[in-house]
Specification:
Distance between the termini: 10 Å
Radius of gyration: 20 Å
Number of helices: 11
Oligomer: single chain
Structural class: alpha/beta
Bound molecules: NADP nicotinamide-adenine-dinucleotide phosphate
Helix content: 25-40%
Length: 338
């Protein structure tokens, strides 16, 4: 099979499409022929050498695919063979074939294309965990979604709107029209102005009940300030560090140095809370993933989960796909197709 190999840390030239041995499904596993594979910010950070959870290099990244079941291992029902599925893959998804435990496979709804299917697991499970499971967002509350035009951002917007929350989102200005069409109540250009006073003005000085922040470092301090009484902040990334080579390492160190410390007494007296999410540290929580996925699939059937694929790049164009996200051009999901 062909696979996208991240050969070492570096710029996009370290990404190579190589022939690799076909995986064989072990007991309890399903082998999927990949039609589309999700590209995530984590794949970029991994290439840059800034993602501690990634496998040792050379490696094939890829947390999610959509495709058809090619074969199954022992103890898996052969009825699955030929079915269209979406799979969560603990790496290896950016390949023509990938094997994953049957518990991480679910049937692809017919109304989704393979490309849309590959846009579901990481973005929507992350957004579900942040807004529903951990953030407890309620009807009538307000939420600040950073990078609202990105993959997780658009997923969070779908869910927040369904819950009946008021939505504020930061994004590059070029994405604001699209975000307004998708139903974002207030888009804030955070790159050409300080977003915090703008948000405070929009909320009559009160702030929001929930902020979700994947930027890291000093941004977490500001997002905490943006919380209203009873507010919660979900931290889930460090995009601010993104860069290749020594620049990335320096940015990561600076972000770590600027990371705020939240004291329990301070949180108690301010009536605020902070929580963190790392989906990649939840592989032992299959039941949670399954129940969240059921809700998300219900949303697909009911039409309020609307995975938006901005662009599909062929495996051979993987360098362009990485550059596209790094240069902040993507609105929603970027997928790779064999
Ligand atoms: N902890 C978890 O479990 C988990 C799971 C999934 C994703 N994440 C994190 O969530 C964030 C979003 O992930 P995603 O896959 O949905 O990606 P994404 O939002 O589609 O990523 C690209 C967007 O991020 C924004 N951005 C902010 N800082 C950036 C920078 N320094 N360089 C490039 N783009 C930057 C840009 O949009 P604007 O300029 O318009 O804002 C860009 O278009 C990432 O930090 C990722 O690591 C965490």
């Amino acid at each position: 099979m062909r696979a996208i190999v991240t050969t070492r840390n570096g710029d996009v030239d370290v990404l190579k499409v190589e022939e690799c041995p076909d995986p064989v499904p072990a007991k309890g596993q399903v082998l999927t022929r990949v039609k589309a594979s999700g590209l995530n910010f984590a794949d970029i950070l991994a290439r840059q050498g800034l993602y501690p959870d990634g496998p040792p290099k050379p490696c094939v990244m890829g947390y999610e695919v959509a495709g058809t079941v090619e074969a199954v291992g022992d103890e898996v029902d052969r009825i699955l063979i030929g079915k269209s599925v979406i799979a969560m893959t603990r790496f290896g998804g950016q390949a023509e074939l990938v094997a994953a435990p049957v518990a991480q496979i679910f049937e692809k709804p017919e109304r989704l294309s393979f490309e849309q299917g590959a846009a579901i697991p990481v973005n929507y499970l992350t957004a579900w965990a942040l807004l529903v499971a951990m953030g407890g967002l309620k009807k009538g509350e307000s939420v600040l979604i950073h990078n609202a035009g990105g993959g997780v951002g658009l997923a969070a917007l779908d869910i927040a709107k369904h819950l009946g929350a008021k939505t504020y989102g930061t994004a590059s200005a070029s994405k604001h029209d699209f975000l307004n069409q998708r139903g974002l109540d207030h888009a804030i250009d955070y790159r050409n102005q300080d977003w915090l006073p703008v948000l405070m003005d929009l909320t009559q000085g009160r702030g929001v009940e929930l902020a979700i922040d994947p930027l890291g470092g000093p941004s977490w301090k500001k997002s905490y300030k943006a919380l209203r009484t009873s507010g919660r902040m979900g931290v889930f990334g460090m995009s601010i560090a993104s860069a290749s080579g020594i620049k990335g390492k320096l940015r990561a160190l600076k972000a770590l140095a600027q990371t705020p410390r939240f004291h329990p007494l301070g949180m108690m007296n301010r009536n605020k809370g902070v929580f963190g999410l790392n989906l990649g540290h939840m592989w032992n929580e299959g039941e949670k993933f399954a129940s969240w996925t059921r809700e998300i699939m219900r949303g697909v059937e009911e039409g309020w989960i609307r995975p938006h694929v901005d662009r599909a790049f062929s495996f051979d164009q993987v360098a362009d796909a990485h550059r596209y996200i790094e240069s902040r051009k993507n609105i929603g999901k970027v997928v790779l197709v064999p």
